[in-house]
Specification:
The structure is a homodimer. Chain A is α+β, with helices and mostly antiparallel strands. The first copy, chain A, has helices at about 5-20, 25-30, 40-50, 70-80, 85-100, 105-120, 175-185, 195-205, 215-230, 250-260, 260-265, 320-340; strands at about 55, 65, 125-130, 135-145, 150-155, 160-165, 230-235, 275-280, 290-300, 305-315. Chain A has a 5-stranded antiparallel sheet. In chain A, a hairpin with an 8-residue loop joins strand 1 and strand 2. In chain A, helix 1 (about 5-20) crosses helix 3 and helix 1 packs across helix 4. Chain A starts with a helix and ends in a 15-residue tail after the last helix. Chains A and B meet through strand 4, strand 5, strand 6, helix 9 and helix 10 of A and strand 4, strand 5, strand 6, helix 9 and helix 10 of B. The structure holds a DNA duplex.
Chain lengths: ~350, ~350
DNA sequence: TTTAGCACTCGTCATCCCTGAGTGCTAACT
DNA sequence: AGTTAGCACTCAGGGATGACGAGTGCTAAA
């Protein structure tokens, strides 16, 4: 059977309608829509065909039709009409970005929250490292006040971390200088795995009076490098799912939400190409998510980091709107992180002890 | 009417039972409990008294009784039997603490998650500053590689933050030294509010070649100070509420969860005295939370910081268990943060640009 | 090829009734 | 005086029943 233009038009109308109402849509409703100039009987025939072709499903005999996964797929691939953001929308988002992202740190949490609020669905934000393993580029040791000093570690990923270390023992300025030099000489360009106990003891030997500091510093350094490697996942707005009619049943919501932990998110396939990727229902990894769809996109943070934002919602979600909002958001983030001067980007946090 | 010992015993039995089953408990069930050596009729009489006294309520005529808020209050105040943590419990918690808190930063998020998992309820963790306003104690400027330098700011709260700043303009080592000296001279011991535009322009005048850097640095400094002031709230495990029978209805769950944002949490009264404070139902601030209780406790982070953890759940929650777990947790955290040497405490994060 | 008409299906909703848990009261018992 | 057995009464919950209506598929006419 052939997928005529009219069939496509009807399918689109059905999906559009179902997305709005979340209820099976009947032939009459479609026939009544503006632009449809055939009778309900004709629609019925076409709907029967579409059902046979696998694009529609019938929950039960005397109900209307709902789109099948294949139907959604077809819809997002070629039928969906682009959603145009209104001026208001873009404006309010711009403001929100300016305002919120000023708060240091926790940026990705904020990003997640904003996406979630804007799409009214659970959202996630992921940062991950692309490219080479993180290594140490430079150490710096500053003496603060008596008995304490600040360790500053810079990695090849342009990240700087620091830690305030307090020690009872008294170490002289020149000892710290020596230590700093030894560390720089020994650990530069090594990744976490390459820092072996042997290296540690070698450093310790040459560190002079500050030898006791070495294990502390090295431990800290290894942690930093390890932390750089693994990607961070921020998941927020899970309760937003409860607003969706398909999750009026707590059981259902729980099933999805309990599988939707950070582990699962981290394993979601990254968008391969194109600005936005959509996973429809059963295309998802976990079978518990077979009735949910994921829309995601990536953006560039710079410095070998890459971000990903996405939302999770019922298969019946407003793909056009979500897609538009998500990509606008990602674009804004890219711009924001890309800025080279005083960006409210990833920020430092204090080390306290 | 007098609250005899027997009445108390019965009330306790009723609350205990209701906490377990979440269903109105009848006279028969109480009479059948071990230790009860009177008949159901007697229990009925006593229950009628307790109802009259305001400790019990009757959902409808032919149902059993449920505790009223006053009943809960009495229960937590004097009736509740201490819950003893099993060896297994303490052990698994200890392990979890060791394991999880190694990950820097996000510590409070982790804490929140752990509390939530352990109590199986939504949990929050708050950090707040006690005592004086944060001020800058010391600046340090390190030149990294060409065109970029690292700004390190130390505050009176023993917090160290840094930021990597890249600039197209070329600034000499001695200019940075000068700038650093000027900054230290001008901004030390000022709080965010005290840093006025006048001071800024004064610094700018004396900063020589690095004058253009001044606004950037000052802005960053102010942000840090401001960030130190406000307390951070981490709320997790909201969906845990769905597991509770009283929230099988999505509407109810949504009502609570939507009011339960970080704003509200931040405004919860801090525990005044004693290790654990319990807010029963209507004692809560927001009227939407009238059917939920909050159990919270505080712990010391050190360095003028104070932490608070709490859980939110139905009025019918296992206060004894939650209280025990929460205080054990807080104790552990206090120990952990109190350690003075290489603690997995608040850590630094990288500044990237 | 389209459309009107019509019989048929089946989920939803309101109604009704039954059942059983639980109560309050009274009268007998200790 | 306090306790207990007995009993009538109340009322929420759960199934059964039937009317209703939205929606379908088919047929025959346009």
């Amino acid at each position: 059977m052939e997928l005529t233009e009219r069939k496509k038009k009807i399918l689109r109308a059905i999906v559009d309608c179902y997305i709005q109402t979340a209820e099976p849509v009947g032939s009459k409703a479609i026939a009544a829509m503006p632009g449809m100039d055939v009778s309900s009987a004709t629609i019925r025939n076409e709907m029967a065909d579409l059902t046979e072709m696998g694009y529609l499903e019938q929950p039960h005999t005397s109900a209307g039709r709902i789109p099948s996964p294949a139907g959604y797929r077809l819809y997002v691939n070629e039928l969906m009409e682009g959603y145009r953001l209104s001026i208001d929308e873009t404006q309010s988002l711009n403001e929100a970005m300016e305002l919120k992202l000023q708060e240091f740190d926790k940026v990705m949490t904020q990003v997640g929250k904003m996406v979630s609020n804007w799409t009214n669905l659970p959202a996630y934000a992921v940062t991950s490292r692309v490219g080479q393993l993180p290594t140490v580029k430079h150490f710096e040791i500053l003496s603060a006040h008596t008995g304490s000093f600040i360790l500053v570690v810079m990695t090849n990923t342009e990240t700087v971390k620091n830690k305030l270390i307090k020690l009872p023992l008294n170490i002289q300025e020149q000892d710290l200088k020596l230590l700093s030099a030894v560390l720089n000489a020994s650990l530069t360009d090594l990744s976490a795995e390459q820092i072996t106990p042997e290296i540690l003891s070698k450093i310790r030997k040459s560190a002079g009076a500050a030898a006791d500091l070495v294990p502390i510093i090295v431990d800290y350094t290894v942690r930093i490098l390890q932390e750089q490697q693994h990607s961070d996942v921020y998941l927020t707005g899970q309760m937003k799912l409860l607003g969706q009619p398909e999750y009026r049943d707590v059981e259902k919501a729980q099933e999805v939400l309990s599988t939707l932990d950070e582990e699962v998110i981290a394993n979601l396939p990254a968008p391969t190409d194109g600005p936005v990727q959509i996973l429809v229902g059963p295309e998802n990894i976990a079978k518990e998510l077979k009735d949910t769809s994921v829309v995601m996109t990536r953006f560039d943070i710079g410095d070998g980091m890459q971000g990903m934002i996405g939302v999770v919602g019922p298969t019946r979600m407003d793909y056009a709107q979500v897609t538009a909002r998500l990509s606008y958001f990602a674009e804004g983030l890219g711009r924001m992180f890309g800025k080279n001067e005083l960006p409210p980007a990833k920020e430092s946090d204090g080390g306290t002890e």
